[in-house]
Every structure is written in structure tokens, then in C-alpha cells.
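Changelog note: in this version the structure field was regenerated for every chain. One regenerated record is shown below for reference.
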Amino acid sequence: MNTQERHLVTGLLVLMLLLWAGFVWHRDPSFPGSFTGGMLGIVAAVFMFVPFFYLVIKRIKSLKKWVARRVPMPKLLLWHVYAGIIGPILGLLHSAHRFDSTVGIALIILMFIVVISGFVGRYLLGHISSGIRTKTALRNDLYQEFQQASAALCDQAQCDYVTRLSNTHPSLLPAMSLAGWQQRPTGDNPAQNIPRLVDTLSDIDYSIAMHDIIKRWFKRWLKFHIVISCTLYALLIFHIVAEIYFGLRWL
């Protein structure tokens, strides 16, 4: 998702929040059962089931391979995002802020949880993946510079400074040993940037480690998002069946 698409989705999310807050000023108990309200509800349900199809396609390998030959998965993901937020917006319009039934209230709450968790997860996960790639590339460049600077000291024999620095940054001890770095540089020695490189590499290593921890937590978030989405679909199907069973008022 590029910046323009992210801004558009953010705008739709804000619109959904504003529409929900509209119950303070507007309520129309008769609209959901009217012809216009019913049509709006049907369109909302269609949009809300689009993300479900993406969920199924992504997890069935044979189906995914067949679909991917015709439609790129990133495009399907984009449809998943847009449909996943447009559907709840239309659902809110369909409700006309008639929050007087347990099923209706539960649907609204679940829609908000699914949309907000999906938006936050998608945005942060993309940001985290991009950050990891950038920091990994930066770390590789700095490590090469560190090895080059360390090679200039490979013939030195004093180890006190190495011991103190490696105790401060133990993660770099193997790298310093392999590079032959053994003495604190003095004067105009080309290796005088080693302390700065060690500090920077240690900071980047810590940041990458934290990114990995956050990424593991987001795998748990994905499971939560899927479970909540399936609960929403079950309740939505129940709502549709109940409306058909008890009769559509506009027929």
C-alpha cells in the first residue's frame, strides 16, 4: 500500500468513525426496513464478504495459484482493504443509527474491531517490514566499514580497550575477533571511527531485534483479526437469514 492509498484508506476510516458518531444527531428506525435501506444493506453485505473470499484464496494453495495467474495478489489485497472498509460504511448507513437490537449492536462493534485492527495491523506491519529492510541494508554497509577499519589494526597487540568495548557491546565480540581489531585508535588513524561504528551497529542490532519481536506479536494479531472476522461473518449470516425468515418489510 503506497502513501496515496494509505491516505485514502485513512480518510475512509475517519468517515466511518464520523458516521458512527452521527447517532447523536440522527436516528431513523424505519429506514433499515425500507426498500432503499434494504438495498443498501445488500450492497454492504456484498462488500463485506469480499475480504472473506481473499482470506479463503490466500490459504488454499491450489486456488491461490489459479487466481494469481489471472489477478495479482497485491491487487486482491487492495480490494480486500477497500471492500473491508466500504462495506462497514454502507452497513452504518443501512442501520440509520438504529442501535436497539442485540444483533445490530454486536455487528456494529465487530465491524469496528475488524476494520480498526485490520487498518492498524496492515499499516504498522508494512511500516515494520520496510524499516527492517532499510536497517538491515544500513547494518550491512556499516559492518563492511567496520571490517575495513578493523583491518587497519590487525597487527596491534594491546587488548584492554577491546575487552572493555566488547563487554559493553558483547554482540560484536565475534565480529571484532574475526576482524583482528585490538587497539583503540589514536591520532589520524583511519580506524578512529571504530567506537562510533560499534555504537551504531549495536543500536541497529537492538532495533532489528525489537522489530522481530513486534513482527511475532503481529502474527498473533493476524490470528485475532481472522477469528474476529469469522465471528462477524457468522453473525452477519445470522442477521441476513433472520431478516429473510421473518420477512422483508419492503416486499
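Spot check on this record: The chain has two domains: 13-130+229-246, 135-207. The radius of gyration is 28 Å.
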